[in-house]
Amino acid sequence: MAGNSGRVTKKAPAKKAGTKSTSSGSKALYSGTAQGTTQLPVARVKRIIKEDKDVQMVSNDAVFLISLATELFLESFTAKAFNLAKIEKRKTVSYKDLATAVTQHDSLEFLQDVIPKTMTLTAAIEKQRAAQEKEEMGDEEEDADQEEANGSQAGSDDEEEEGEESSRPMSEDEGELSTPEDMDED
Protein backbone atom coordinates (compact mmCIF):
# COMPACT_ATOMS: atom_id res chain seq x y z
CA MET A 1 0.00 0.00 0.00
CA ALA A 2 2.67 2.42 -1.00
CA GLY A 3 1.86 5.19 -3.42
CA ASN A 4 3.97 7.59 -5.39
CA SER A 5 3.47 10.21 -2.71
CA GLY A 6 5.58 8.22 -0.29
CA ARG A 7 2.69 7.50 2.03
CA VAL A 8 2.60 4.11 3.69
CA THR A 9 -0.65 3.02 5.23
CA LYS A 10 -1.59 -0.32 6.64
CA LYS A 11 -4.59 -1.74 8.32
CA ALA A 12 -4.20 -2.01 12.07
CA PRO A 13 -3.48 -5.59 13.09
CA ALA A 14 -6.10 -7.47 15.01
CA LYS A 15 -5.54 -7.42 18.76
CA LYS A 16 -3.54 -10.46 19.81
CA ALA A 17 -3.70 -12.22 23.13
CA GLY A 18 -0.07 -11.30 23.86
CA THR A 19 -0.42 -7.53 23.26
CA LYS A 20 1.20 -5.57 26.05
CA SER A 21 -0.84 -2.96 27.77
CA THR A 22 -0.15 -0.51 30.56
CA SER A 23 -1.95 -0.56 33.88
CA SER A 24 -4.47 2.00 32.59
CA GLY A 25 -5.46 -0.33 29.75
CA SER A 26 -3.85 1.57 26.81
CA LYS A 27 -1.81 -0.23 24.13
CA ALA A 28 1.99 -0.37 24.02
CA LEU A 29 3.91 2.28 22.10
CA TYR A 30 4.84 -0.05 19.25
CA SER A 31 1.86 -1.36 17.31
CA GLY A 32 3.85 -3.56 14.93
CA THR A 33 3.52 -1.41 11.80
CA ALA A 34 5.32 1.68 10.56
CA GLN A 35 2.94 4.52 9.80
CA GLY A 36 3.55 7.98 8.48
CA THR A 37 4.85 9.74 5.44
CA THR A 38 8.24 10.25 3.95
CA GLN A 39 9.52 12.76 1.39
CA LEU A 40 11.32 10.10 -0.64
CA PRO A 41 9.17 8.04 -3.01
CA VAL A 42 8.83 4.63 -1.37
CA ALA A 43 8.51 2.75 -4.68
CA ARG A 44 11.81 4.17 -5.91
CA VAL A 45 13.57 3.39 -2.62
CA LYS A 46 12.25 -0.17 -2.84
CA ARG A 47 13.60 -0.46 -6.40
CA ILE A 48 17.02 0.77 -5.24
CA ILE A 49 17.03 -1.76 -2.39
CA LYS A 50 16.14 -4.58 -4.78
CA GLU A 51 19.16 -3.68 -6.96
CA ASP A 52 21.21 -5.53 -4.36
CA LYS A 53 21.47 -9.12 -5.57
CA ASP A 54 21.44 -10.43 -1.99
CA VAL A 55 17.99 -8.96 -1.28
CA GLN A 56 15.15 -11.21 -2.40
CA MET A 57 12.20 -9.54 -0.69
CA VAL A 58 11.80 -6.44 1.44
CA SER A 59 8.74 -5.49 3.48
CA ASN A 60 6.99 -2.15 3.13
CA ASP A 61 7.79 -1.39 6.77
CA ALA A 62 11.50 -1.88 6.13
CA VAL A 63 11.37 0.31 3.02
CA PHE A 64 9.56 3.02 4.97
CA LEU A 65 12.11 2.93 7.80
CA ILE A 66 15.04 3.02 5.37
CA SER A 67 13.45 6.03 3.65
CA LEU A 68 12.94 7.74 6.98
CA ALA A 69 16.52 7.01 8.10
CA THR A 70 17.84 8.34 4.79
CA GLU A 71 15.87 11.55 5.23
CA LEU A 72 17.21 12.02 8.76
CA PHE A 73 20.77 11.40 7.60
CA LEU A 74 20.46 13.88 4.72
CA GLU A 75 18.89 16.45 7.05
CA SER A 76 21.79 16.12 9.49
CA PHE A 77 24.42 16.20 6.73
CA THR A 78 22.98 19.29 5.05
CA ALA A 79 22.53 21.04 8.40
CA LYS A 80 26.25 20.57 9.11
CA ALA A 81 27.12 21.87 5.64
CA PHE A 82 24.72 24.82 6.01
CA ASN A 83 26.34 25.79 9.31
CA LEU A 84 29.68 25.97 7.51
CA ALA A 85 28.11 28.18 4.82
CA LYS A 86 26.63 30.45 7.52
CA ILE A 87 30.06 30.84 9.11
CA GLU A 88 31.27 32.24 5.78
CA LYS A 89 28.15 34.47 5.66
CA ARG A 90 26.57 32.65 2.73
CA LYS A 91 23.06 31.28 2.32
CA THR A 92 23.92 28.79 -0.41
CA VAL A 93 25.44 25.42 0.40
CA SER A 94 28.23 24.54 -2.03
CA TYR A 95 30.26 21.40 -2.67
CA LYS A 96 33.07 22.88 -0.62
CA ASP A 97 30.76 23.00 2.42
CA LEU A 98 29.80 19.35 1.99
CA ALA A 99 33.43 18.26 1.63
CA THR A 100 34.45 20.29 4.67
CA ALA A 101 31.64 18.77 6.71
CA VAL A 102 32.89 15.30 5.75
CA THR A 103 36.44 16.10 6.89
CA GLN A 104 35.40 17.84 10.12
CA HIS A 105 32.87 15.34 11.47
CA ASP A 106 33.96 11.82 12.40
CA SER A 107 30.45 10.49 11.84
CA LEU A 108 30.75 11.40 8.13
CA GLU A 109 34.21 9.87 7.66
CA PHE A 110 32.80 7.05 5.52
CA LEU A 111 32.00 9.62 2.80
CA GLN A 112 35.62 10.73 2.25
CA ASP A 113 35.97 8.70 -0.96
CA VAL A 114 32.60 9.86 -2.29
CA ILE A 115 32.94 13.56 -1.43
CA PRO A 116 36.67 14.37 -1.41
CA LYS A 117 38.10 17.77 -0.63
CA THR A 118 38.60 19.87 -3.76
CA MET A 119 42.11 20.64 -4.97
CA THR A 120 43.74 22.53 -7.77
CA LEU A 121 44.69 20.77 -10.98
CA THR A 122 48.42 21.09 -10.27
CA ALA A 123 47.97 19.57 -6.81
CA ALA A 124 45.96 16.69 -8.30
CA ILE A 125 48.65 16.03 -10.92
CA GLU A 126 51.37 16.07 -8.26
CA LYS A 127 49.36 13.68 -6.08
CA GLN A 128 48.86 11.35 -9.05
CA ARG A 129 52.60 11.41 -9.88
CA ALA A 130 53.49 10.67 -6.27
CA ALA A 131 51.09 7.72 -6.24
CA GLN A 132 52.59 6.38 -9.50
CA GLU A 133 56.13 6.73 -8.14
CA LYS A 134 55.13 4.95 -4.95
CA GLU A 135 53.56 2.16 -7.01
CA GLU A 136 56.70 1.86 -9.15
CA MET A 137 58.88 1.74 -6.03
CA GLY A 138 56.68 -1.06 -4.68
CA ASP A 139 57.09 -2.96 -7.96
CA GLU A 140 60.87 -2.47 -7.89
CA GLU A 141 61.02 -3.71 -4.28
CA GLU A 142 59.08 -6.81 -5.30
CA ASP A 143 61.50 -7.36 -8.18
CA ALA A 144 64.46 -6.96 -5.81
CA ASP A 145 62.92 -9.46 -3.39
CA GLN A 146 62.44 -11.92 -6.24
CA GLU A 147 66.03 -11.41 -7.39
CA GLU A 148 67.27 -12.02 -3.84
CA ALA A 149 65.24 -15.20 -3.65
CA ASN A 150 66.56 -16.32 -7.05
CA GLY A 151 70.11 -15.34 -6.03
CA SER A 152 69.98 -17.32 -2.79
CA GLN A 153 68.58 -20.29 -4.67
CA ALA A 154 71.32 -20.01 -7.30
CA GLY A 155 73.95 -19.72 -4.55
CA SER A 156 72.79 -22.96 -2.94
CA ASP A 157 72.94 -24.70 -6.34
CA ASP A 158 76.49 -23.43 -6.86
CA GLU A 159 77.61 -24.80 -3.50
CA GLU A 160 76.26 -28.25 -4.32
CA GLU A 161 77.85 -28.48 -7.74
CA GLU A 162 81.12 -26.65 -6.92
CA GLY A 163 82.39 -25.39 -10.22
CA GLU A 164 80.08 -27.34 -12.50
CA GLU A 165 77.60 -25.37 -14.55
CA SER A 166 74.00 -25.67 -13.55
CA SER A 167 71.75 -27.74 -15.78
CA ARG A 168 68.64 -25.70 -14.97
CA PRO A 169 67.70 -22.92 -17.39
CA MET A 170 68.50 -19.38 -16.29
CA SER A 171 65.60 -16.92 -16.03
CA GLU A 172 65.73 -13.55 -17.72
CA ASP A 173 66.13 -11.74 -14.37
CA GLU A 174 69.14 -13.83 -13.39
CA GLY A 175 70.97 -13.24 -16.66
CA GLU A 176 70.84 -9.43 -16.51
CA LEU A 177 73.47 -7.41 -14.70
CA SER A 178 72.93 -3.87 -13.52
CA THR A 179 74.91 -1.15 -15.21
CA PRO A 180 75.76 2.21 -13.59
CA GLU A 181 73.19 3.87 -15.88
CA ASP A 182 70.45 1.57 -14.56
CA MET A 183 71.38 2.47 -10.98
CA ASP A 184 71.07 6.19 -11.69
CA GLU A 185 67.48 5.73 -12.87
CA ASP A 186 66.45 4.36 -9.46
TrEMBL record:
Q: Does the keyword Nucleus apply?
A: yes
Taking every annotated instance into account, which residue ranges of this chain make up the domain Transcription factor CBF/NF-Y/archaeal histone?
39-102
Q: Has keyword Nucleus?
A: yes
Extent of Low complexity compositional bias: 19-28
Tell me the superkingdom of the source.
Eukaryota
InterPro entries, per database record: CBFA_NFYB_domain, Histone-fold, Transcr_DNA_Rep_Reg
Start-end of Basic residues biased regions: 8-18
Instruction: Give one GO biological process term.
Output: DNA-templated DNA replication
* First-listed, main subcellular location of the protein, grouped into a coarse class: nucleus
What is the recorded name of this protein?
Answer: Transcription factor CBF/NF-Y/archaeal histone domain-containing protein
What organism does this protein naturally occur in? Linnemannia elongata AG-77
